[in-house]
Amino acid sequence: MPYDRMLSRRALLRSAALTTAGWWAAALSVEAANPPIVGFIYVGPRDDFGYNQAHAQGAAAVAKMPGVKVVEEEKVPETVDVQKTMGSMITLDGATLLFPTSFGYFDPHVLKVATQYPKVTFLHAGGLYQEGKHPKNVGSYFGYIDEAQYIAGVVAGHTSRSGKLGFVAAKPIPQVLRNINAFTLGARSAKPQTTTQVIFTGDWALPVKEAEATNSLVDQGIDVITCHVDSPKVVMETCERRGIFCSGYHASQAALAPKGYLTGAEWNWEGVYTDFVKRFQAGEKLPNLVRGGLKEGMIRTSPYGAAVGAAARQQAEDVRAQWMAGTFVIFKGPLQSNTGTTVIPAGEQRVQTDLSLESMDWLVAGVIGSIK
Amino acid sequence: MRSAKQQDIVATLGLPAGALVVSLLVFGMFVAGSGANPFTAYTLMYMGGFGTWFSWQNTLQRAAPLILTALCTAIPAHLGLVIIGGEGALVLGGLGAVVMALHLPGSTPWLVQLAMALAGMVAGGLLILVAGALRHYRGVNETISSLLLTYIAIAVFNHLVEGAMRDPASLNKPSTAALGEAYMLGMLPGMEVHWGLVYGLLACGVVYVLMSRTVFGFAARMAGGNARAAQLSGLPIGRLVLTGCFLAGAAAGLAGMVEVAAVHGRANASLAVGYGYTGILVAFLARHHPLAIIPVAVLLGGIGASGGLLQRRLGLPDATVLVLQGILFVVILASETLRERLQLMGRVAS
User: Fold this and answer.
1) Among B46, B55, B312, the residue to mutate for chain A (most A Cβ within 10 A)
2) What residue numbers bound the domain in which B73 lies?
3) In total, how many domains does chain B have?
4) Alpha carbon of B4: minimum distance to chain A alpha carbons (Å)
5) Closest Cα of chain B to A350: distance in Å?
6) Does the pLDDT of residue A27 top 70, yes or no?
């Protein structure tokens, strides 16, 4: 190789290194500057058509706000990895507001890192904050998505011809049971004989099992399926291929099932996150615990698909109006579980903020399936 | 003229170093193909993995569990066995440690920690022991059986954590009861890295001595080299295989104990996040040498640590890091084929 060419290559390398070093220094110096750097951390891929995509859409909305810089990291497991990711966003990127979006990040990971960096604000999706027990720079928020699942249930109940609905669920934990129950109660408010067959797959992201569960539900004559797994993609695609209706979860999956998609229960993280960041920029103290549903704008439903009839739309919109007015209650007595016990006696009702709903360990009558 | 030993050292250090450089070049092309500047990527990887004190701690912390799970594959490799069940042994190790801690309330912390470590090692060891026993007595392929045993171990673990051993207060993330802050392992003095790193370094040292300086190690390597010849020399193959497998599982089980006692404080699904599988990669890259495992684990820890920065600064997907790991794996294994040719060339030259 001629000497001069070697030199030029070396010069090229050097200039590249200098450029990156300069860029690096510029990147680091942002720390002191005014525009806040906001970090988002996802447990799965951010384009999963589900849980993580819903949060990533929120992050994208924040990134469009003037004077805000967003940094994102996906597929961060709920181990020491997320602690180091948070630390890295703070020390290397200069982030001052973090959104660790997975439920399992909170204890012990967020709690631990929040104590190490008391000047950074941590807002966690899960609604787990306890006053006096957890660091003050931690906030936790969550939405009552069962409100939207109830509306989706109304639509499913009206649309189903067989009166048999299906639910592909990850684990029999309170949040999931609450969705199954709300969906079923919504459907039975439309047609009282409707049943929901539930299948628990055992974990949050098991695409093969989710497809098997969906197929077996379709084989049983079920004609509307919804789910509560991290990525509803497989369930929705399988429903569409088998020619039945489906109802989405987390984000809109309408694009995956253009014929069969009825509606869906979605998070409105765009609204929630831009609101948080706006208040953060204004220097307000953010509340440590934020919970809300349709009325508070934390939750929304997907636009109705073409297959949704007039009666379904009318009842669904009627329920929505009651949610917006703050008068609707899903869980009210007399309410029987599917094992025949009375879970809420006649005359009693459990409003959305009722803490006893958060340790739900029963399935309402009309659900075919067992928690054990 | 160089001696055979010098040539060996050159080959041992030079080949992996060369392979690393080649991998980084190939990776650079991949990065350029994804529309990012490869030189920026290199700088970011250096900064994220090794550029600051925080980055070093990040790297070492990520390396810690990999050192232990790599031993789960490396020890049986000396016996000629390919064991890939580290993930299962890790999970059971964590479970064993929790069971022990919850049954020893009120004892002094160091005693509980010791008992947890032993319980974790026994639980993990027994799982891989089963794979070894199936291999020796029934002729079942140990690679397949250790992988399948991992699935069983994780299923049993989930069943217990979500059923009999579940803390009723762990509503939406089923977990066992907590150990209690007093029994946690804590961090190494002066850094944000837990004690698992020291355990891993000690374990590698012990395994190195065991394999290269003891009768057991000699016998094990002989059995691994030629089982038939070892048998004819009167070596107890069965005992060697069972012991080797138990020690392997014990190393991964200890990693599980550390995850429970230093990170999570309880056992839940977050134990099964793939440390066992990455450990296989580390063991193969280190060519199953117990001391080589340490730098390889640190390298992979560094790649993991810098992966976040690549995502955040360059907008590259998370899979970028997996691509680099894959390239590294293929190139290092391919470079092995050069080893003999290199030695041959050296011999001809001398």
Assistant:
1) B312
2) 37-315
3) 1
4) 33
5) 19
6) no
More confident residue, B124 or B20: B124
**Quick check: A257 and A239 in contact, CB under 8 A?**
yes
Does position B10 have pLDDT exceeding 70, yes or no?
A: yes
B238 found inside a domain = yes
Q: Residue A77: which of B37, B265, B273 has the nearest Cβ?
A: B273
Average pLDDT over all residues of chain B: 92
User: Is B332 a member of any domain?
Assistant: no
- The verdict on a CB contact (< 8 Å) between A78 and B270 is yes
DSSP per residue, A215-241: HHHHHTT--EEEEESS-THHHHHHHHH
Put simply, the answer to whether B269 touches A174 (Cβ < 8 Å) is: no
Instruction: Check which CATH number belongs to the domain holding B269 and give it.
Output: 1.10.3470
Nearest Cα to B254, choosing from B66, B76, B53, B105? B66
Q: Is the pLDDT of residue B1 over 70?
A: no
Q: How far apart are CA B260 and CA B267, in angstroms?
A: 6
Judge whether A332 lies within some domain: no
Both A58 and A136 in one domain: the answer is yes
Q: Which residues pair with A142 in a beta bridge?
A: A291
Cβ–Cβ of B304/A81 closer than 8 Å?
A: yes
Residues 6+ apart with CB under 8 A from B236: B219
Q: pLDDT digit string (tens) for A38-50?
A: 999 999 999 999 9
Q: Which domain, by its residues, includes A224?
A: 146-266+300-325
Same-domain pairing of A101 and A162: no
Element (H, E) at B284: helix B275-285
User: Do A111 and A187 sit in the same domain of this protein?
Assistant: no
Instruction: Identify the closest residue of chain A to B260 by CA–CA distance.
Output: A79
Please tell me the predicted confidence (pLDDT) of residue B9. Answer: 76
**Quick one: pLDDT at residue B13?**
78
- B275-285 vs B86-102: helix axis angle to the nearest 10? 130
Same domain assignment for residues A97 and A233: no
A132 and A162 assigned to the same domain: no
Q: Is the pTM of this model over 0.90?
A: no
Question: According to the model, what pLDDT value does residue A79 have?
Answer: 93
What CATH number is attached to the domain comprising A208?
3.40.50.2300
Helix B293-314 vs helix B38-46: crossing angle, to nearest 10: 120
Chain B contact for A297, CB < 8 A?
Answer: no
C-beta of residue A363 within 8 angstroms of C-beta of residue A337? yes
| Domains in chain A, number | 2
Does residue B28 sit within a domain? no
**ipTM associated with this complex:** 0.88
Tokens of A61: 């909305």
Query: What integer pLDDT is reported at residue A6 of this predicted model?
Result: 42
Co-location of A255 and A315 in the same domain: yes
Beta strands A245-250 and A224-228 are parallel
Q: What is the pLDDT of residue B107?
A: 81
> Could you tell me which residues come within 8 angstroms of residue B288 by beta carbon, excluding any fewer than 6 positions away?
B73, B74, B77, B78
Res B169: pLDDT? 85
- Helix B215-225 with B53-78: angle, nearest 10 deg: 70
Q: Are residues A83 and A166 in the same domain?
A: no
Q: d(Cα A237, Cα B282) in Å, to the nearest integer? A: 38
d(CA B316, CA B320): 7
φ/ψ (deg, to 5) at A288: -75, -25
Whether the CB of B167 is below 8 Å from some CB of chain A: the reply is no
Can you tell me the distance from the alpha carbon of B83 to that of B247, in angstroms, rounded to the nearest whole number? 12
Q: Examine residue A280 and state whether it is found in any structural domain, yes or no.
A: no
Has residue B32 been placed in a domain?
no
**Distance separating alpha carbons of residues B49 and B309, to the nearest angstrom:** 9
Tell me the C-alpha distance between B178 and B111, whole Å.
Answer: 17
**Rounded Cα gap, residues B164 and B155, in angstroms:** 14
Please state, in angstroms and rounded to a whole number, the distance separating the CA atoms of residues B83 and A66.
54
